[in-house]
Structures are given as structure tokens and as C-alpha cells.
Amino acid sequence: MMNDMTKIKHHLTEPLLMGYAAGTLPEAFNLVVATHISMCDDCRAALAEYEAVGGEVMMDTAPVDVAEDALAATLALIDSGKFADKPAPRRTKDSVFPGPLQDYVTGDIDSLKWRKVGGGVSQLVLKTSKDASVRLLRIPAGTAVPDHGHRGTELTLVLQGAFTDEEDRFGAGDVEVANEDLNHTPVAEEGMDCICLAATDAPLRFNGLVPRIAQRFIGI
Q: Which InterPro entries does this chain map to (predicted)?
């Protein structure tokens, strides 16, 4: 069961909320954003404001003529998969997996087909568009994820338990937004396994030799 949403300390950035509202994020990032919003009243309210502003801009925009083949071109673009799916940030009570995630995950934590990635950590890669990737991570209580940096952006949303790193403590509902400037070693707190939803738009940069070798096979 998720923690009380009033305890959420770490929220989405304005660019992420604006990108979600505009539909410009990769599907993997959309999923993390929608899942966090389903857990966070503050970010849900902020999203509503961005969507309202976007609606006003559309209303104030003067109509323009379009090419005769505009419809066919738009349908072809949709078929190409370049438009990212945008999960709705609906709430779901009494479940580790909030509403948006339930369109991607079938079953509970223990019934999923986890794949070991080393050090006791397991992952389940979710199927999304190829411009970014997203996975569930299961980090046993007290276990550290290998020290790593980032070649792009990584969004990590805690669904159960908590982890700490060089930045802060992240509990259920918190999201950490990491970029090329952050090197960290997340450690799951004692008490229960830490379940996270993590999306990346570029491979991580592991600092140890063994994780770098394993990275070729686990695709993270």
C-alpha cells in the first residue's frame, strides 16, 4: 500500500509537467509522470494549471489553412509510432501499482517475471516506444544499486519502501530527476524491498568494472 500522499517531498519539475501536458515526452517518461501525478495532489493541481493555459492558447490562436494531404500525413505519423502514448494519471487505492501502471503490469509484485541484474537487484522492462526505456526495479532492503552516473535523464519514482543517496531520502511517491551532473549510489532502506519505476533516455554510466560488463546484457 502506498504511503500517505502528504508525505511526498520530491516532485516533478516544471519542464516535465509542461512536456506531459503538451504531449511531447517519450512514452516511458509519460508513464513515470502519470504514475507520480496519480499519487501526488500537488503535481495533479499543477498539471491542471498547465493544461488550462494550453487550452487558452489554443483558443486564442487564429485558424490557418492546411494542406490537402494534412490528414493523410497525420495518420501516417501516428502509424509510425512517433507520437508517444500518454497514460492518464488516474488514482488506484490499496495497490503498489497505481492506475497508469496497471495498463503495463499484470499481477502483483511477487507474480511478476523479475530478471536478476546483479547484487540482488531485479528488474522488469516494460514495453514502450523506443525513444526511452522504463522498468520496474526491485531492490532488496539494505541493498545498494551500483554507483553510477547518467548520460541523459533518469526519472526514478518510488512505489514502495524508500532509498537514500547522496542527494536525499526518497520515499513512496517521491521522484528523483537525475541528469549528467549526478553520480550516486542509491541504497534501499531496511524494513522492506524498495520498488521503483525508472525511465531513462540514455544508458547509465556505471563506475565499476563488473556493472559495466553486466550492462551489456541487462540493457540499462
A: Anti-sigma_ChrR (IPR012807), Anti_sigma_zinc_sf (IPR041916), ChrR-like_cupin_dom (IPR025979), RmlC-like_jellyroll (IPR014710), RmlC_Cupin_sf (IPR011051)
Choosing from 29, 63, 79, the residue where a domain stops is 79
Three-state SS for 157?
strand
Its pTM stands at 0.80
Q: Are 25 and 37 in contact (CB under 8 A)?
A: no
| pLDDT (mean) for 149-154 | 92
Domain containing residue 46: CATH number: 1.10.10.1320
**Cβ contacts of residue 44 below 8 Å, gap of 6+?**
37, 38, 89
Locate all alpha helices (DSSP H) within 61-144, ordered by sequence.
70-79
Domain tally, the chain: 2
Element (H, E) at 191: none
> Cell for 163?
532509498
Q: Provide the residue range defining the domain that includes 51.
A: 5-79
